[in-house]
Write a structure and sequence with these properties.
By secondary structure, this protein is an alpha+beta fold. The protein has three helices and eleven strands. Bound molecules: zinc ion (ZN). Zinc ion binds next to loops.
Length: about 180
Amino acid sequence: MPETHAVDLVGRRMPGRVLRGAGRRGLRAWNRSQPCCAAPRLDIGPDGRMRCGGCGMWCSASHSRDRLVLARSMGPIGVDVQVRVDRLRAMRVLAEVAQLGPAGAGVEQWALAEATLKAAGRAGSVPGRGELTLPAAPTSRALPDEPFRLRIEAVGAESVGMPGVVGRAEQFTWGSGFVIALVQI
Ligand SMILES: [Zn+2]
């Protein structure tokens, strides 16, 4: 299992739809208001993963509609927020990839899949059949609506993975319309 590191997670509603690049801007603003170290600098690796160039802290960001979620930790992490909408075709594909069986995939597994790919540095790639391990029935806890600021001492015990990647995951409901997945590897 991955080493356990505390994760700081924040989320807020933005004025209007969140634009591309808002995650990186949000992470930089967070590092200015609450610096992770004496010389914070957001570096983006060739695999898309973000780290502080000063202290090595790992960062991840996600947005959906008008919601923005940011996370940072001393170990590799991925965070994903998804609005609850039906994407039946995409869910069928995901259920095949993760071999979820008759229960199929929902937006919960979709967020977990995205967060796992981000944590592994493979965001944007499409795993083959059987290459993604996700919980068939993930459990969630409710977050305060917004804005929220949360320190998670140990990411929950749901298992997620890809070939060569073992992770643990935790899932949240955010109001009635959004789910958030957090993955640590
Ligand atoms: Zn730092």
